[in-house]
Specification:
The complex is a heterodimer of chains A (109) and B (115).
Chain A: E1 3-5, E2 9-13, E3 18-25, E4 32-37, E5 44-49, E6 53-57, E7 60-65, E8 70-75, E9 84-91, E10 97-99, E11 103-108
Parallel strand pairs in A: 2-11
Antiparallel strand pairs in A: 1-3, 3-8, 4-5, 4-9, 6-7, 7-8, 9-10, 9-11
Chain B: E1 4-7, E2 10-13, E3 19-25, E4 31-37, E5 44-49, E6 56-57, E7 64-66, E8 76-78, E9 87-94, E10 105-106, E11 110-114
Parallel strand pairs in B: 2-11
Antiparallel strand pairs in B: 1-3, 3-8, 4-5, 4-9, 5-6, 7-8, 9-10, 9-11
The chains are: A mainly beta (109), B mainly beta (115).
């Protein structure tokens, strides 16, 4: 079966760095996405990785290792507004998205 | 620019009733999707449409139907609602006809409670 695993919840301190991991097992691979979802709101796109390595976009970076079926989202200089759920999703061989359940990130002052 | 508009935002519905969730996009995207989001589970695809005039079944299509008469609108109908359909429903669109090939844009969601 197809499966995306990510931690249910993480806590971090304002100004610090946090890494949210995602492991996947899918039939085929056509890219890995990270989305941010604030409570009661719609998911919004953060990043897309299709090749191995690190993609940096401001305070957020996303890493992919296709051989390990592994990705992480790195958030630097955490701000209170970063409190949200972070969703990992993988495009399978049919370009259908398989979604993880999301990681709820709690930022403490 | 509105992006994707969903209606209603929230609805309480008696079991057995028919309900249509509306979704309209103004980005001229080819593909549109309906997902449901339940606590502890990832987004699950109900139905999708790669282009106007075509639709397809997703992971959890039973009890739902869709139509895509034009590019902009993609309504989701529950023919006879059941309590297990209590969920938050998100409509989404993408420029590409393949969900896993590009960014998805989501509506604000419709919270449906079936009693």
């Amino acid at each position: 079966g197809q499966n995306i695993d990510q931690p249910t919840e993480m806590t971090a301190t304002e100004g610090a760095i946090v890494q949210i991991n995602c492991t996947y097992q899918t039939s085929g691979f056509n890219g890995l996405f990270w989305y941010q979802q604030h409570a009661g709101e719609a998911p919004t796109f953060l990043s897309y990785n299709v090749l191995d390595g690190l993609e940096e976009k401001g305070r957020f970076s996303s890493f992919l290792s296709r051989s390990k079926g592994y990705s992480y989202l790195l958030l630097k200089e955490l701000q209170m507004k970063d409190s949200a759920s972070y969703l990992c999703a993988v495009g399978d061989s049919n370009y259908q998205l398989i979604w993880g359940a999301g990681t709820k990130l709690i930022i403490k002052p | 620019i509105a992006g994707i508009t969903q209606a209603p935002t929230s609805q309480i519905l008696a079991a057995g009733r028919r309900m249509t969730l509306r979704c309209t996009q103004d980005m001229r995207h080819n593909a549109m999707y309906w997902y449901r989001q339940d606590l502890g589970l990832g987004l699950r695809l109900i139905h999708y449409s790669n282009t106007a005039g075509t639709t397809g079944k997703g992971e959890v299509p039973d009890g739902y139907s869709v139509s895509r008469a034009n590019t902009d609108d993609f309504p989701l109908t529950l023919a006879s609602a059941v309590p297990s359909q209590t969920s938050v429903y998100f409509c989404a669109s993408s420029a590409s006809g393949l969900a896993g090939a590009g960014e998805l844009f989501f509506g604000e969601g419709s919270r449906l409670t079936v009693l």
